[in-house]
Amino acid sequence: xxxxxxxxxxxxxxxxxxxxxxxxxxxxxxxxxxxxxxxxxxxxxxxxxxxxxxxxxxxxxxxxxxxxxxxxxxxxxxxxxxxxxxxxxxxxxxxxxxxxxxxxxxxxxxxxxxxxxxxxxxxxxxxxxxxxxxxxxxxxxxxxxxxxxxxxxxxxxxxxxxxxxxxxxxxxxxxxxxxxxxxxxxxxxxxxxxxxxxxxxxxxxxxxxxxxxxxxxxxxxxxxxxxxxxxxxxxxxxxxxxxxxxxxxxxxxxxxxxxxxxxxxxxxxxxxxxxxxxxxxxxxxxxxxxxxxxxxxxxxxxxxxxxxxxxxxxxxxxxxxxxxxxxxxxxxxxxxxxxxxxxxxxxxxxxxxxxxxxxxxxxxxxxxxxxxxxxxxxxxxxxxxxxxxxxxxxxxxxxxxxxxxxxxxxxxxxxxxxxxxxxxxxxxxxxxxxxxxxxxxxxxxxxxxxxxxxxxxxxxx
Length: 461
What we know:
- The protein is of the alpha+beta class.
- The chain has three domains: 1-44, no CATH class; 61-91 and 140-334, Transposase Inhibitor Protein From Tn5, Chain A, domain 1 (Alpha-Beta Complex), CATH 3.90.350; 406-461, no CATH class.
- The chain contains 13 helices and 17 strands.
- Strands 1, 2, 5, 6, 7, 8, 9, 10, 11, 12 and 13 form an eleven-stranded mixed beta sheet that branches. Strands 3-4 form a two-stranded antiparallel ribbon. Strands 14-15 form a two-stranded antiparallel ribbon.
- Helix 5 packs across helix 11 and helix 10 packs across helix 11.
- The longest helix is centred in the C-terminal third of the chain and has 29 residues, at 374-402.
- The radius of gyration is 39 Å and the shape is elongated.
- The model is unreliable at 23-46 and 49-55 (pLDDT under 50).
């Protein structure tokens, strides 16, 4: 027969004599007495059993210094995320430009007009930041590369940059967005120092990438950047605009997990993968005590190659996509109009001419289907640009000659201006067509003709 205890007696007995970790198998029944504060009619209900939360990852979880939670994933296992639909077509000219461009000069005039060429300094100051023509004339492909370009110059200006790792240490820096396949310059922003329009607290790298990619958002394109631009916050901002990011990330970033920053205890050619909120982090060790961190929002699964180095697909894709701006800069420097100058507007104008010529070459080939060497295109473009200038110069020269008197002053002789059969003969008569002084050797003898025949010839014509 079970014993009956009051509530206070049962509580004292449990605290003094019962070890909750041990059990001897006896059933202890606690029943309230009639004089207790709680009525015996009330039933004591056991607390509900909590169910464990279903885990969506297979590996351990790490937390970065800024609070970002990273889940270690298995190599080759797809992640639980919805990928962004990639941009379908390659880069191509817009419909309006395709209808209008049929020559080299027309492709070049899509970016720089003849009026701009006549006023170099004024055009540079007023239109130096305008890149709307580059944006409206070409639809880039899926992959766009963003990097910096240092145009070599030692002109005296407040925003001159010094970069020790560049071949030319001094120059004017430009932020450039370039199409990977065609090397078309999609957008350019010059670096002029501190930007007062940049919001406080926003990184310069994120601000630059968002400005350059603003006309190409919401289409499923992929941006490739280096470790100066790449960050987790940038990848999430681009992912909200249906744009993916691929790039190397600096190991000092606070959002990276602690194990990703360690490179001492890693085997050669080993790969470690982390994931968080639609973004993957690949840590690859190409050498002992050296790691490379690749941040990607375009890969839904990270796989390794079946080779000796076992490179993951994120590293392979980055190596093939990172060279857009570098190849563009190399092509621009190979054939350049740059010349020595002490004025920075002229130096900036040289760089704009080189970029416009490269974009014109891409547009001309895409619109007309004509495949030719770039050096031949530039030679023909220069001759077409010079035709209008030479024609206007010739007309001005003829007008100046016609303003001169038909014959020299009395007692004076002029020098022959034709010099096709003579060297330095004197002349007193001008040509009726070009109005230049012509000597007797350089003139053409015309057969005599009577007035009747001359009138008949005029009527027949």
